[in-house]
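Incident log, structure service

09:12 report received: a user says their structure output differs between two submissions of the same chain.
09:20 pulled the input from the user's history:
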Amino acid sequence: MAITAQMVKELREKTGAGMMDCKKALTETDGDMDKAIDYLREKGIAKAAKKADRIAAEGSTYIEVEGNTAVLLEVNSETDFVAKNDQFKNLLSVLGRHLLTQKPATVEEALQQKLNGEGETVEEYISSNIAKIGEKLSLRRFTVLEKGDNDAFGAYLHMGGRIGVLSLLEGTTDEELAKDIAMHVAAVNPKYVSRDQVSEEEVNHEREVLKQQALNEGKPENIVVKMVEGRLGKFFEDICLLDQSFVKDPDQKVKKVVEAKGATVKTFVRYEVGEGMEKREENFADEVMNQIKK
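09:34 re-ran on a clean worker, output below:
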């Protein structure tokens, strides 16, 4: 029996399972909707789907590096407990390896790829782990970076992966320096590498805010302009990596530290688990009880 897109859509709505899982279930059961639902349940995929509306804002970041390629990813779980267990850590490793070798452009593309180029899809692999672990799990985001032979990656995971930073320095193979820059980014959380990456719109907006602040402070208009330009310097220090005081040596700016080694900061990526996501309001006792009930 020909499996139509409408049939796949209907099964997805009934079970919440992934598109490829639904298509496979319908193919295996010759288009019988009830049997397809049973098929997904038996595989543990429908069970995983029931967890789809839960909030997964815990989890971990992970970094995989090999040669001139590196990837930083974030996988979310429902509780911090799960994020620390060996099965979850293995999931991170397997996904990191896949993203490093297959280099998908988006999460959506990654989920539909064959895991490491063969066998089940990434989406199916994650679903099978949901069934085993008993929590909603999701690949939230990732960034793949490429470097030259004379460049260096800096990889740093803070608090066991609560924050993950991947930096890329050009003109040096000093991985220790690159890691120091990554540690700085983890601690200070700059938005940009340098001032020239800040849009004119953002700068003008800040300039206007600073101008109004100065005027509200009663400062004469003839000195407000100079005050604003001076305060803009502090604004850039807050958001631009190269303008910041280096955390390991506050007497030096990051720019000077990097230039002293003949290097430049090409880019950095910083992930903090769950940032920007809705989080549950639960106390520790409730979380323990939820684990006991599973």
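09:41 both user submissions now match this output. Likely a transient worker issue. Closing.
09:42 reviewer note: Strands lie at 58-66, 69-77, 138-146, 152-158, 163-170, 245-246, 249-253, 264-272. The chain has a mean pLDDT of 90.
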